[in-house]
Design goal:
With 113 residues, this protein is an all-beta fold. 0% of the residues lie in helices and 49% in strands. The chain has strands at 2-6, 9-11, 17-24, 33-38, 45-50, 57-59, 67-72, 77-82, 91-97, 107-111. The protein has a six-stranded mixed β-sheet with strand order 2-10-9-4-5-6, with no helix packed on it. A four-stranded antiparallel β-sheet has the order 1-3-8-7, with no helix packed on it. It starts with a strand and ends with a strand.
Length: 113
């Protein structure tokens, strides 16, 4: 199983980023997938979860209305569109097969002026 995130970077408050997570080594279309973030000195926080076919999504309250999770099972790729970013969104973001220990190395998001 391999999960590789990309798309992070430095962005100003109010800006946008789209994260990607490419999966391989498993049937990508089967499991629910989760985006998780971890800020320095804090524990992991789940951000969004998406069902196998993408029809059901859930978000942690602090990102609802600003972030959108989606997936393209034909491309074995999970996405997180992040709009109206805030400094408190700064963290290492990684994707994870829901309910498992399989996760990627993460991509850093920094929101700062």
């Amino acid at each position: 199983v391999q999960l590789v995130e990309s798309g992070g970077g430095l962005v100003q408050p109010g800006g946008s980023l789209r994260l990607s997570c490419a999966g391989s080594g498993f049937t990508f279309s089967s499991p629910y997938m989760t985006w998780v973030r971890q800020a320095p000195g804090k524990g992991p926080e789940w951000v969004a979860i998406i069902s196998s076919d993408g029809s059901v999504t859930q978000y942690t309250p602090s990102v609802k209305g600003r972030f959108t999770v989606s997936r393209d099972n034909a491309k074995n790729t999970l996405y997180l569109q992040m709009n109206n970013l805030r400094p408190e969104d700064s963290a290492l973001y990684y994707c994870q097969i829901s309910g498992s220990d399989y996760r990627g190395q993460g991509t850093q998001v920094t929101v700062s002026s």
